[in-house]
From TrEMBL:
This is L-threonine 3-dehydrogenase. One of its GO terms (molecular function) is L-threonine 3-dehydrogenase activity. GO terms for cellular component: cytoplasm. Homotetramer. The active site is at 40 (charge relay system), 43 (charge relay system). Its EC number is 1.1.1.103. PROSITE patterns: ADH_ZINC. Transmembrane segments: none annotated. Zn(2+) 1 binds at residues 38, 63-64. Catalyzes the NAD(+)-dependent oxidation of L-threonine to 2-amino-3-ketobutyrate. It catalyses: L-threonine + NAD(+) = (2S)-2-amino-3-oxobutanoate + NADH + H(+). Zn(2+) 2 binds at residues 93, 96, 99, 107.
Length: 343
């Protein structure tokens, strides 16, 4: 089969011919139809410090996809060949305290598909059947292919009550703009998103935000108070840039008692004004991955109740043009990029 492999310990990703993997007794064999490129894949492509520490080479990477069940191990129940699936990319241990309590997203022994074990930039993927999510027929393939990052957005956005609240999202990357769309859909009042990249801010406008603010040239507090009439600050914050400056700005514009969820991954240590956190009595929650499998059910239901994510998918390529897709992601002038294995 064809696959995209991190073959060498240097910048790049390469198309290879490799063996179709064999499912174990509890695994599904999934024929991948469409892949989407994650920011994590871009880190692996660039071969940054995190990737060098984390990714064994050679390895097939990737973890955002939609596919069809093509085979399964002898112990698998509840799936049939031909079922359309996406999958949870965090493979959990099943025996730690949190796993046994059903809080799988808090597993301390998580292995990542396409990070610590072979991934889905391939014609076939082996995945524990437990991790597969059977897709309702009315979820289009393109949307199903981005369920993994959509799940990050949903997990973050649904961490706090948003109904009638004023929400700030820092970082209008694909996850930030999807979180903004979720916040609007579930009844937030003002959803303000910030970035320093005008392409991304335009994408956020197409996803229906109240106001997209370029913090390189505009004053966020002025926009919030003068333009939107929010005199006390934001009720809920979602940090989705990984930028320390963005997080600092968020803390400065939160109302007392505000709730902040942190998804963006900073590249190093970040300075926090702890006095502001304390005297504003903020609640801060770290977010990793998706809740298994509540987030997946919510994702399907949000799409089925009319949430439109289609503007976030900005580029489509056949798999042979994967390099173009990575170049678009590297340039920052894209939302989600979909690669089609059947082209
Ligand atoms: P992305 O890199 O595409 O988007 C981040 C955006 O933040 C960019 O558009 C960038 O221009 C913007 N930005 C930079 N500085 C800013 C500033 N000062 N103020 C406002 N915006 C600023 O990332 P993505 O794929 O949308 O993911 C969002 C973040 O979440 C990333 O940091 C990613 O590493 C992280 N992530 C975390 C998890 C998790 O489980 N915790 C999962 C996936 C991704
Ligand atoms: Zn565990």
């Amino acid at each position: 089969m064809r696959a995209l492999s991190k073959l060498r310990a240097q910048e790049g990703i390469w198309m290879v011919e490799t063996e179709v993997p064999t499912p174990g007794p509890n695994d599904l064999l999934i024929r991948v139809r469409k892949s989407s490129i994650c920011g994590t894949d871009v880190h692996i492509y660039r071969w940054d410090e995190w990737a060098q520490r984390t990714i064994p080479v050679p390895m097939v990477v990737g973890h955002e996809y939609v596919g069809v069940v093509a085979g399964m191990g002898s112990e698998v129940r509840g799936f049939s060949v031909g079922d359309r699936v996406s999958g949870e990319g965090h493979v959990t241990c099943g025996h730690c305290r949190n796993c046994r309590a059903g809080r799988r997203h808090l597993c301390r022994n998580t292995q990542g598909v396409g990070v610590n074990r072979p991934g889905s930039f391939a014609e076939y993927l082996v995945l524990p059947a437990f991790n597969a999510f059977k897709l309702p027929d009315d979820i289009p393939d393109d949307i199903a292919a981005i369920f993994d990052p959509f799940g990050n957005a949903v997990h973050t956005a649904l961490s706090f009550d948003l109904v009638g609240e004023d929400v700030l999202i820092t970082g209008a990357g694909p996850i930030g703009v999807m979180a903004a769309a979720v916040a609007k859909h579930v009844g937030a009042r003002n959803v303000v998103i910030t970035d320093v990249n005008d392409y991304r801010l335009e994408l956020a406008r197409r996803m229906g935000v109240t106001r997209a603010v370029n913090v390189a040239r505009e004053d966020l507090w002025e926009v919030a108070t003068r333009e939107l009439g929010m005199h006390e600050g934001f009720d809920v914050g979602m940090e989705m840039s990984g930028s320390g400056a963005a997080f600092a700005q968020m803390v400065s514009v939160m109302n007392n008692g505000g709730k902040v969820a942190l998804l963006g991954i900073p590249s190093g240590r970040v300075d926090i004004d702890w006095n502001a956190v304390i005297f504003k009595m903020l609640t801060i929650k770290g977010i990793y991955g998706r809740e298994m499998f509540e987030t997946w059910y919510k994702m399907a239901a949000l799409i089925q109740s009319g949430l439109d994510l289609s503007p976030v998918i900005t580029h489509h390529y056949g798999i042979q043009d994967f390099q173009q897709g990575f170049d678009d992601m590297l340039g920052g002038q894209s939302g989600k990029v979909i690669l089609d294995w059947e082209s």
